[in-house]
Amino acid sequence: MLITEIQSSARMLMEAHGTKAIAEAAQKAVACEEKGELDKARDWRKIEAALKQMQGPHQS
């Protein structure tokens, strides 16, 4: 996946799932890993990372 595709997918996932988007991406990555679909799992991990970056730092 290209960086632009990852960012676009992350935005769509955020719009669809809100605050649960990161967990959704992580679950999809695990499901792909369990099926041996490592390329897809890598893409989901990249989307997960993009979502975390979009979220920004945690505030205390």
Explained architecture:
It is a single chain. The chain has helices at 3-17, 21-35, 38-55. The chain has 60 residues and is an all-alpha fold. The chain has one domain. The chain is globular, with a radius of gyration of 11 Å.
What value does the average pLDDT take? 93
β-strand percent reads under 5%
Number of continuous helical runs = 3
How many domains, in number, for the residues? 1
Summarize the structure.
The chain is mainly alpha-helical and 60 residues long. The chain contains three helices and no strands.
Q: Any descriptors?
A:
60 residues, mainly alpha
Blueprint (SSEs and pairs):
Blueprint: H1 3-17, H2 21-35, H3 38-55
Helix pairs in contact: 1-2, 1-3, 2-3
